[in-house]
Design brief:
By secondary structure, the chain is α/β, with parallel strands linked by helices. It is built from 11 helices and 17 strands. It has 2 domains: about 270 residues, Spore Coat Polysaccharide Biosynthesis Protein SpsA, Chain A (Alpha-Beta Complex), CATH 3.90.550; about 80 residues, no CATH class. It has a 5-stranded mixed β-barrel.
């Protein structure tokens, strides 16, 4: 009999690259960026429901976003909203989810998914996850989903697969690689051996907890103390005391780059990590002039632009490669090549005491 399937959805990010729509009080994962009106976290939960029951889905976020999670996912049990006292990167976040699920089940399959990615082909995604669960049940296998790259993206980390060691539809991981420059990214894509690192993982609770114990002993010790307090009157107190002391480390660096038996399962299901405003073109498509307009927009002699408005009329004349995002209290005007600078803009707002716009 196969193990119970559970999921941890990470939803603590601030989504700063989607300012001014994404704010501290309403970050990207709680926004609707698609035409169906559903928010990104709602879509993330919806697409895994064929595999995971709602009572076995956990959301890792922070206390400020608890009301948003409750509002957008009313069917989710209240105790499945895990609020981190402070952000400590992905390893402690995933560990917190693992000890909570371990408190409920002796062992189970645990899927780890970001809350702010989009998937075009849900059926293929579910099939890929199903395959990943079968691989994860074997021994101590840790499985990561690798996205088949279709262009030389420099904004993603890559994973090199050892094509000589197939494990069913998966391969053993040869190495994890940092974000490459354009020439290197081209080589990676042409080789057919590299995949985009999706940040999605599938493993048994016993496998990930053993690896945390072996490779991140201080983190494991803290998580064990937190687990002992789950369901007791001390639960919140212990969490607030112990969790901030855990080292801030990514699961990639803390476990995946050190462990053995890492499997990469290639996926080709229309994945998009929605990393910046440029993703809107991929999500919503473009018109004959390569523009993507949302809201009340008129344009003359304007091409390759993204304009996001609401009821207020936005009129554009003679623009090219420009992003305009209008909200009631702030408007962003940005060249497409400078979307990576939006975080610097927010730092500038902080330095000028304009926190109300964050």
């Amino acid at each position: 009999m196969s193990l119970k399937k559970t999921a941890l959805i990470m939803a603590g990010g601030r989504g700063e690259r989607f300012w001014p729509r994404s704010r501290k009080s309403l970050p990207k994962q709680f926004l609707s960026l698609t035409n169906d009106g559903k928010t990104m976290i709602q879509l993330t939960v919806e697409r895994i429901l064929p595999l995971v029951a709602m009572e076995d889905i956990y959301i890792a976020t922070n206390e400020a976003y608890r009301p948003l999670v409750r509002q957008q996912l009313p069917q989710l049990p209240e105790e499945n909203i895990l609020c981190e006292p402070v952000g400590r990167n992905t390893a402690p976040c995933i560990g917190l989810g693992a000890v909570h699920i371990h408190h409920k089940y002796e062992d189970a399959i645990m899927m780890v998914l970001p809350s702010d990615h989009l998937i075009k082909n849900n059926e293929m995604f579910v099939q890929t996850l199903t395959d990943a669960c079968q691989i994860a049940e074997q021994g101590q296998n840790l499985v990561t989903l690798g996205i088949t790259p279709n262009y030389p993206e420099t904004g993603y980390g890559y994973i090199k697969a050892d094509k000589n060691t197939p494990n069913g539809p998966a391969y053993l991981v040869e190495r994890f690689v940092e974000k490459p420059d354009l020439d290197l990214a081209r080589q990676y894509v042409q080789s057919g051996e590299y995949y985009w690192n999706s940040g999605m993982f599938i493993w048994k609770l016993s496998s990930i907890l053993t690896n945390l114990k072996n490779h991140m002993p201080a983190t494991f010790e803290g998580l064990s103390a937190i687990q002992k307090a789950i369901g007791t009157p001390d639960q919140e107190h212990v969490l607030k005391e112990v969790f901030p002391s855990l080292p801030s480390e990514s699961i990639d660096y803390g476990v995946m780059e050190k462990a053995s038996g890492i499997n990469i399962l290639p996926g080709d299901f229309g994945w998009d990590d929605v990393g910046s405003w440029l993703a809107i073109e991929r999500i919503k498509g473009t018109d004959a002039d390569e523009n993507t307009f949302t809201g009340n927009v008129v344009a003359i002699d304007t091409s390759h632009c993204i304009i996001e408005g609401q009821d207020k009329l936005i009129a554009a004349v003679g623009l090219k490669d420009i992003i305009v995002v209008d909200t009631p209290d702030a408007t962003l005007i940005c060249h497409k090549e400078k979307t990576g600078e939006i975080k610097k803009l927010l730092d500038l707002l902080r330095s000028q005491n304009k926190e109300t716009y964050l």
